[in-house]
Structure formats: C-alpha cells, structure tokens
Design a protein that fits this description.
Blueprint lengths: L3 E3 L2 E3 L4 E3 L6 H4 L7 H4 L4 H18 L13 H15 L5 E5 L7 H11 L3 E5 L3 H14 L3 E4 L15 E5 L4 H8 L8 E6 L3 H8 L3 E9 L7 E10 L3
Parallel strand pairs: 3-9, 4-5, 4-7, 5-6, 7-8
Antiparallel strand pairs: 1-2, 8-10, 9-10
Helix pairs in contact: 3-5, 3-6, 4-5, 7-8
Length: about 240
Amino acid sequence: MMRRMVSKIELPVESCVVRSRRISSSASGMSDQSDIEEIFPVSRETMDRLAEFVALFQKWSSAINLAAPSTLPDIWRRHVADSLQLYALNPGPLKWLDLGSGGGFPGIITAILLKEAGGGAVDLVESNHKKAAFLRQALARTGAHGKVHAVRIEALAGQFTDHDAISARALSSLDDLLRLTAPRLKQKTVGWFHKGRDYRREIDDARRSWTFDLVEHQSRIDADSVILQVSNVRPIKL
C-alpha cells in the first residue's frame, strides 16, 4: 500500500482527500472581490492589481477568446477566486511553471500574489501568440513576477527543471498532463492541477500508466471540482 503525506503526516491510504468550506455563489454572486478574502487574505495593493488584471482581461476578451463567454459575468468567482486557491494551498516565494496559460488563470493570479510575497516567479507557457501578447501586457500592467514563453509545451524538453511547482487549468487529461510533466515531477517539484467532475475517471486512467503520490483538495468554488496535488511521478514499466 502506498503512503501519502499531508502536513507532514504520513497516511497509509491510496490517496488523501482534503475538504474545506465551500464558498457559496448565492452569498454574493462573486460579482466583485468580496469573497477573495475568504480564500486567501491579500493586501489592498494586491487587490488593486487583481482588479487591474480583470479589467484588462475583459477588454481583451472582446477581441480574442480568453475564456468561455458564459463565465465572464462571474469572473471573480469562476476564474480569479478559483485560481487563487492554488496559491492558498502552496503559498510563498516559489518558482512556478504554468502550462497552457491562456487567459492567465491561474498563472497571472499566482504571479500577482508572488509580487506581494516579494519573491518567486511564474514561467507562463502559451503557444498562441495573441494570448501570449495578452499575458505579457498583463504582467507589465500589474507588475507581477513572471515571464511568458510563446512555445508549445512539448518544446520545453530539457528546460525549466528547477521549479517548485507546476500548474495547469482546463488543459488536458491527467494522463496527458503527466506525460508532459513527468520528467519534472520528481523529488521536490509538485503538480497542482484543477480538475472537474470527471476527475475520478482521469485518476483511474492515469494510474494505468503511472505511479504517483496524490492529495485531492476539494474546490471551495465548485462542489464537483478538485485541485489535484501530484508528486513523485514514475512511469509503470511493463
């Protein structure tokens, strides 16, 4: 039986599930920043940077597809607060690698929070050059700690091997994510992956090809979603 670690306590279980109080959308609708504080309290300056980013995101969304249009009225809850969960789970001046950064969730949000932390940075990987241009402007406007790489993820082989954490949101299946990140998810590097209602099937599929340590963090935004904390990834040798 595999052993898992949460808060430095080893548990003899296949995987660990961590549940937190979920923020109800009916309380405020998340039409503003009010529930951000419930996930991770930030300074007024950081809240201003988040608001600056949201305004820029909404401006660019009218020209290019950065997120599903149906989610934009609820952007603070569906995207900002959802992304902020990663930093709340893994805070501090760390080096992040964000894959398929797209509209900047969670990569830009993490980079903004690192600005307040006073250290660390995010390498944002986005092959779409229009989206990469948006991400660069977002970093410049907010002063966030990060750098944009307009390349395909597959082109990163042998690069970026010293990150503390890797993030991805709405990018691909867990099995595909592990194929892309397995060489990096060894020793100290940890993967933090947002997953939706089919996450259990994705975990089962991935376990056919990989062994890995897993902690499931229940989303505080969506009852059907989780954040998977993945480490010590190894391919299964047939």
